[in-house]
């Protein structure tokens, strides 16, 4: 029996994509996550622009994770020019990144993904029966907004980041008032995690190669080596020697793969599996309290990984705000020189790699940007292939629900989503 | 009365909501609070208010740029679902009524100012929409004196 599951427009994801699964006798004959959003040519129009402009230009790639783009760009350019930041500025960058994780993860966990598990079409419908959960989500998200507003200059597309640091340091009396809100958000998240742990997670595991940054002491935001569960351990500058992006006919987004082994997984589950020993005490306690064990190979439990990372980000934000003294310059001097630099940071959805070649005038000669969704596309499709027997056994509506839920495990960022879902089922007789 | 401006000042006529707030900031009757909603989810908290709430926003109204319409809640068409880009005005209103049924304002008005689809980025309003901003600000002042 041949059966086609087709979702013309994926909802509750970031961007424009569709899904087609062809099932033959309970196997997946083909799985295509079709991304039809037009290519945006950022790498091309960065050429000739000043390297100092890259953080603000690339931030416009995404309204959900602009800080990730700013951080990867800054780290790559600073690597090219031999610039290092003092600990005080490093802490503020971690605070800004924590703010973005809080915004992005809270939106996804509470508003976009939880409805899948609780059986609601969307968060509005879910709010009628689970008002407290939605209130918790909005409160946690607003704690992230507050960090972006005070330190970044505004909630979306922050304007205070520059190569070498910040344009302006916040005053202590601007940052300190955030602490009570952040502490309450941390407690809210710790409680919500207990609720999330009771959700009905599908019984499904895969043997992924997990890929994430790993830092000498901290849970990774912006620094560290690129490591994997299969033993990869490389400097960021060696990314292109081990990873490659390829075109596929059904998607305008490039597909990345490990040159040696193919598909891999990046994002919260990978970060947690590879950096569990780097969690802060409260985040570790939250994970222990819900019995979360690593390695976790169930992609649906990415929701729990995001929840634990929310506690981690909120706890670190509390610590940085509490210790903040507004000492030292807002930025370090950045020389004008030629060079090539590589930067990889952990966007909410996973590894975000940038590479820039800069000429002696300070202009960008070449740019390369590999976002996490490109890196996870193969794994998304392979998940659905492995889910095929389960999908084939379910009524059509339930199969579609599970397929979409599986895609949303990745919080995919295609960009600018609207809600429209139309399903076509083609039964074409015996194969 | 709380007046909430919504919009993006860097997207031409879409910035008419903030422009009305700016115009009103030169002088409004006592008891009128002017607010900018910088992020859609902020609207939920701002709608939890015991008095009149006026939401000032641009609406696509091709060929009728600058037309000011006073919409009651029932006239604001809800959008089916949440995307990852957050909430629309109608969704925020619906969500606020669901989450805070007792706290949500009993008197909500959406002051909708027509714009043509934005064709460019950049600050500043077209002459038609600038006239609509003046009319909208005058409407708020009259309403505040009632």
| SS field, number of helical segments of chain A | 14
Taking all residues together, what is the mean pLDDT of chain B?
85
| Helix proportion range of chain A | 40-55%
CATH class of the largest domain in chain A, named Mainly Alpha
Rg estimate of chain A, integer Å: 21 Å
Q: Which regions of chain B have little confidence, pLDDT < 50, spanning 5+ residues?
A: none
Shape of chain A: globular
The overall number of domains of chain A is 2
CATH architecture field of chain B: 3-Layer(aba) Sandwich
Count of all domains of chain B: 1
- CATH superfamily caption of chain B: HybD-like
Structural class of chain A: alpha+beta
The CATH superfamily of the largest domain in chain A appears as Cytochrome-c3 Hydrogenase, chain B
Major sheet of chain B: 5 strands, mixed
**In the CATH hierarchy, what is the class of chain B?**
Alpha Beta
Query: Biggest sheet of chain A, open or closed, and with what strands and sense?
Result: 4 strands, antiparallel
Measured by DSSP, the beta-strand proportion of chain B falls in 15-25%
Task: Describe it.
The complex is a heterodimer of chains A (431) and B (146). Chain A has helices at residues 42-45, 54-59, 66-81, 87-118, 123-129, 131-152, 172-175, 178-197, 239-242, 268-275, 281-289, 302-323, 372-393, 396-408, and strands at 2-7, 17-24, 27-35, 161-162, 165-166, 211-214, 225-228, 233-234, 243-248, 251-258, 339-347, 350-358, 364-370, 423-427. Chain A has 431 residues and is an alpha+beta fold. Chain A has 2 domains: 1-37 and 395-431, no CATH class; 38-370, Cytochrome-c3 Hydrogenase, chain B. In chain A, the strands form 5 sheets. Chain A has a 4-stranded antiparallel β-sheet, with helices on one face. Chain A has a 3-stranded antiparallel β-sheet with strand order 6-7-8, covered by helices on one side. A 3-stranded antiparallel β-sheet of chain A has the order 11-12-13. In chain A, β9 and β10 form a beta hairpin. The longest helix of chain A has 32 residues, at 87-118. Chain A is globular. The model of chain A is unreliable at 415-431 (pLDDT under 50). Chain B has 146 residues and is α/β, with parallel strands linked by helices. Chain B has a single domain (2-144), classed as Rossmann fold, CATH 3.40.50. Chain B has 4 helices and 5 strands; from the N terminus they run βαβαββαβα. Chain B has helices at residues 16-24, 42-47, 89-99, 127-145; strands at 2-5, 33-36, 52-60, 68-71, 107-115. Chain B has a 5-stranded mixed β-sheet with strand order 2-1-3-5-4. In chain B, α1 (16-24) links the parallel β1 and β2. The interface between A and B is medium-sized, with 33 and 19 residues.
């Amino acid at each position: 029996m041949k059966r086609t599951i087709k979702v013309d427009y994926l909802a509750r994801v970031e961007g424009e994509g569709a899904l087609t699964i062809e099932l033959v006798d309970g196997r997946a004959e083909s799985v295509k996550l079709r991304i039809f959003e037009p290519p945006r040519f950022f790498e091309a129009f960065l050429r000739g622009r000043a390297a100092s402009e890259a953080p603000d230009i690339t931030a416009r790639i995404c309204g959900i994770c602009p800080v990730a783009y700013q951080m990867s760009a800054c780290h790559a350019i600073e690597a090219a020019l031999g610039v290092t930041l003092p600990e005080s500025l490093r802490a503020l960058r971690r605070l800004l990144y924590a703010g973005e994780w809080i915004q992005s993860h809270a939106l996804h966990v509470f508003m976009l993904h939880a409805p899948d598990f609780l059986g609601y079409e969307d968060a509005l419908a879910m709010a009628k029966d689970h008002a407290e959960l939605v209130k918790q989500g909005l409160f946690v998200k607003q704690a992230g907004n507050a960090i972006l507003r005070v330190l970044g200059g505004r909630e979306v597309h922050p304007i205070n980041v520059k190569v070498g640091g910040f344009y302006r340091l916040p005053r202590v009396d601007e940052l300190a008032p955030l602490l009570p809100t952040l502490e309450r958000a941390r407690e809210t998240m710790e409680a919500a995690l207990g609720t999330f742990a009771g959700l009905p997670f599908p019984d499904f595991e895969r043997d992924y190669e997990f890929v994430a940054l790993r830092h000498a002491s901290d849970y990774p935001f912006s620094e560290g080596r690129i490591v994997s569960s299969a033993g990869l351990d490389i400097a960021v500058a060696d990314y292109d020697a081990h990873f490659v992006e390829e075109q596929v006919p059904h998607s305008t987004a490039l597909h990345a793969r490990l040159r040696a082994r193919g598909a891999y997984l990046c994002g919260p589950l990978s970060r947690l599996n590879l950096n569990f020993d780097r969690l802060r005490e409260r985040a570790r306690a939250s994970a222990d309290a819900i019995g979360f064990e690593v390695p976790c190979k169930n992609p649906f439990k990415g929701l729990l990984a995001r929840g634990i990372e929310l506690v981690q980000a909120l706890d670190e934000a509390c610590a940085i705000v509490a210790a903040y003294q507004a000492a030292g310059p807002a930025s370090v001097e950045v020389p004008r020189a030629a060079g090539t630099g590589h930067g990889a940071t952990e966007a909410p959805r996973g590894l975000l790699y940038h590479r820039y070649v800069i000429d002696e005038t300070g202009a960008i000669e070449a740019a390369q940007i590999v976002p996490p969704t490109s890196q996870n596309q193969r794994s998304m499709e392979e998940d659905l292939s492995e889910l095929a027997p389960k999908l084939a056994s379910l009524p059509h509506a339930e199969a579609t629900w599970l397929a979409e839920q599986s895609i949303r495990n990745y919080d995919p960022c295609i960009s600018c989503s609207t809600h429209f879902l139309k399903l076509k089922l083609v039964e074409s007789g015996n194969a | 009365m709380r007046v909430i401006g919504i919009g993006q000042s860097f997207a031409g006529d879409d910035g008419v909501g903030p422009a009305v707030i700016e115009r009103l900031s030169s002088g409004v009757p006592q008891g009128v609070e002017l607010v900018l909603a910088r992020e859609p989810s902020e609207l939920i908290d701002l709608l939890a208010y015991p008095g009149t709430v006026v939401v000032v926003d641009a609406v696509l109204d091709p060929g009728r740029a600058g037309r000011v319409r006073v919409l009651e809640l029932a006239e604001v068409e809800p959008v089916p679902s949440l995307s990852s880009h957050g909430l629309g005005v109608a969704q925020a209103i619906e969500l606020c009524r669901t989450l805070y049924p007792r706290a949500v304002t009993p008197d909500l008005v959406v002051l909708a100012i027509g714009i043509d689809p934005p064709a460019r980025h950049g600050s500043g309003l077209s002459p038609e929409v600038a006239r609509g901003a003046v009319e909208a600000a005058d409407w708020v002042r009259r309403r505040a004196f009632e």
